What we know:
This protein is of the alpha+beta class. Among the domains are: 185-279, no CATH class; 284-357; 362-491, no CATH class. The chain is built from 24 helices and 6 strands. The protein has helices at residues 3-25, 28-40, 47-59, 63-72, 78-90, 94-107, 113-126, 129-142, 148-160, 164-173, 179-192, 195-207, 214-227, 230-242, 251-263, 267-276, 282-294, 298-310, 317-329, 333-345, 383-401, 416-424, 427-440, 458-471, and strands at 361-366, 369-374, 447-452, 474-478, 483-487, 490-491. Strands 2-1-3-4-5-6 form a 6-stranded mixed β-sheet, with helices on one face. Strand 3 (447-452), helix 24 (458-471) and strand 4 (474-478) form a beta-alpha-beta unit. Helix 7 packs antiparallel against helix 8.
Amino acid sequence: MNRGLFSVLNERQKFANFLRFCSKSLLLDQGMQVHGALVKMGFGFDLMLSNDLIVMYGKCGRLGVACDVFDRMLERNVVSWTALMCGHIQNGNPLESLLLFSKMALSGVKPNDFTFSTNLKACGLLNGLYIGRQVHDTCVKTGFDTVNVVGNSIIDMYSKCGRINEAASMFEVLPVRNLISWNAMIAGYTVAGFCKKALVLFRKMQEGEEFLDEFTFTSTLKACSDLGAIKEGNQIHAFLITGGFLYSVNTAIACALIDLYVKCGELFMARRVFSHIEEKHVISWTALILGYAQEGNLEESMDLFRQLRESSIQVDGFILSSMMGVFADFALVQQGKQMHAFAIKVPFGVDISKLKKEAGCSWVEIAKEIHFFYGGDDMHPLTEKIHEILKEMERRMKEELGYVYRVKYALHDVEEESKMENLRVHSEKLAIGLALVCGGLEEERKVIRVFKNLRVCGDCHEFIKGLSKILKIAFVVRDANRFHRFEDGLCSCGDYW
Length: 497
């Protein structure tokens, strides 16, 4: 080989290695310096290096620069397109990934297994079942559905979209199942509320001597937690000890154990697990503190919070906002004010502007279009009809079931009548109202699906249970914790979420 050519290729590979290291270590400044150097060396339009630049900028949160690199490329291959799609998802914009996927199809570049996997993930994040099915169909036609990484992504997509039976069907036909396949299905069953099936699958993994990792244990322990299955949880805890899994140094597993014991009322065991953690992280503190708070033991929760403040561990914005969220759920204004006062005085540099509780948002798909609602939202063109039908449903539920508002979930310092009005315009109720206005009462399918970014409140939970009974309609609601299936006045969570 010509020595000059060898030298050029060697320099090119060095740049690639530098960029990949910067991507892995999130070294934006160094990556930008490498970018400048490779342009000076005449590699500005090199296909491989441009792909590496897109990956680096995407991972470092500079998606605009990644798009600029992509737009200036003289030639693009499947890696170029997929890298930018991944960047969009990593930066919280899965919809843009799907739009890019459509443009790629028009460009003539053929997708590979990672392209399909990436966009199936985007569909799951958007709860976009219709598009997800289209991507799945394309995978079947091209033979990629049998590729492990794609099959696993199909399982995950259907699980996130609330179609657990379709996820299970995909799991059953996978030619080869790896650890990710098992974990995706166990997590899917757990989130969907089929926790007994998750435990059955876990036992099959054990019987088949499959490798188990922290994700396997955390999902299975979550299933035990949701079921209140303390016996099975104890068995897993014992298995961890006898199997040599050091949960004392694994924050995720330790937190899952704490959550299990707190929710099963075994607070002594929760504290015992907590005490065995070698290096207590703010996450483990948060798990125990919120566990006590969510069980209604606010006095113990606040005492633990005081201990955390006195420790060497820095109180972060997450635990402060989480505590304020608990106080908001219980309409405990005084405690919330105390926490706000602490946030103002805290010397750790926490940005209190980020401590506002995230706004509740719910969405529902009607005729392939997604409609979003926030609490108190009156921007939808059918708002008046939505309020009318919700009032009618309340009237029927009062007459037939004796339904009454759970006003403790309303704003605290307002009149009783205003509290009821406040509860009526919770985002999940508005989304359900739209579904009813748009034919939900007449259609034979009798299933209405709603998604929410936060935990559904107690009043809305009771309201939807009652609605399912009087209308003979099944409601599937995905909140921040799990899927709830409301049918004939009951919820799959057993009122435990």
